[in-house]
Design goal:
The protein is an all-alpha fold and 137 residues long. The protein is built from 4 helices and no strands.
Length: 137
């Protein structure tokens, strides 16, 4: 079961990377040309990132069921928080495109803050324990 949990974590990391690249391309289009297609890519990239973070959370939950290490709680919490932040950013970007740039911008800030908090939790968990992330050192 450990291998399955680790595979989810690594697969999730790749999916997050792809989502980040999609969102970055979209943000570049928004910044340089104010293209609505760019905003759509930002939203889509955030949803891909949310999926990847969900995979990482599930993989860490699998490992936690086996090992029951306290550090894993931080890692799991962090991954789910990042998922929530990504979903919030997706909703915010859709609000910016369809309703109000001002309302969407405020919600986007909240989503980014949630993602940042999730990253802190995930990093604390990885630093504290024998997370697969530590095996990359």
């Amino acid at each position: 079961m450990r291998i399955y949990g680790e595979e989810l974590i690594y697969s999730g990391a790749w999916v997050v990377l792809i989502g980040t690249a999609i969102a970055a391309v979209g943000q570049t289009k928004v910044t340089t040309t104010e293209s609505p297609k760019g905003s759509k890519l930002v939203a889509q990239g955030n949803m891909v990132e949310a999926f990847g973070n969900s995979l990482q959370a599930l993989g860490n939950e699998k490992l936690f069921l086996e090992e029951r290490e306290q550090f894993q709680i931080n890692t799991i919490t962090g991954a789910w928080l990042q998922t929530v932040g990504n979903i919030t950013n997706t909703v915010a970007t859709n609000i910016e495109m369809n309703i109000s740039k001002e309302e969407g911008a405020g919600l986007n800030a909240v989503g980014s803050g949630i993602q940042g908090l999730g990253a802190i939790y995930e990093a604390m968990g990885a630093a504290e324990g024998s997370s697969p992330i530590n095996n990359w050192k």
